[in-house]
Design brief:
alpha/beta; 9 helices; Rossmann fold
Length: about 280
Amino acid sequence: MHKKNPFQESYQFDQLSKAYPSLKKHVFTNKYGNKTIRFEDKEAVKALNKAILLLHYRLRYWEIPENNLCPPIPGRLDYLLHIDELLANKKNIHLLDIGTGANLIYPILGRCHFNWNCKASEVNLESLQNAKQIIRKNKCLHDIELRPQKFKNNILVNIINPNDRFDVVVCNPPFFKNATDAAKKNERKVRNLNLNTKNTLNFGGTSNELWYKGGEEAFIKKMIVESVQFKKQVNWFTCLVSQKENLKNIKRAINKIQPTEVKIIEMEQGNKKSRCVAWRYS
């Protein structure tokens, strides 16, 4: 985890439960004498993340529909901490989040943790309405701008306007190729965790959050091609890459558009390893 991530240490469950009392029923003491929750339980994970937002970021309201992805805040913050380093700790940052989802997590963290100026796109209208509700009910988020993506085949096109200037674009892309691919990988995860039921799993997500024709590699390649149109308006384009085996083809696709700089940023949260790819033209 990034050295500046405040969630490196164990969670302060007593304080978190005071901030959001509904978390308390999910907290138990494990065999090592530590307070924790069952991280395979989506309701427990949602309660933990909501408590973090209420306690540490002073939100008054944060809700997501049952079927939408619940983001692990420490990991999402790690991405932005690496972005902050990429931008050399510059002030007055303007960020664009592609596919913010119902949870709005990157703009929330960008605004509340870094005091960045944030805009975000979303293709799913129900998710967009939920994100709008979060903004409406939190005064500290009122300057976040949401932009609907009306065309499912576009990523940056129709979102970045002619007069826009962004320091960075961030994106957590859909990672499966289709619904069948998502179901198979979730079943494998269930077996690996030795769980008996899928009903409690924190593997939720709507179709646009989970899969894209061709998977994350195809999505990122499409984003790379579209980025050429906006090379004078964006300093850094970045995107998470969940599957390391996709990195080779993604780097090859980036090299074809002849950027001036490319970076692969390795990230690690506990046993989970991930990375983000970043490229720019100027």
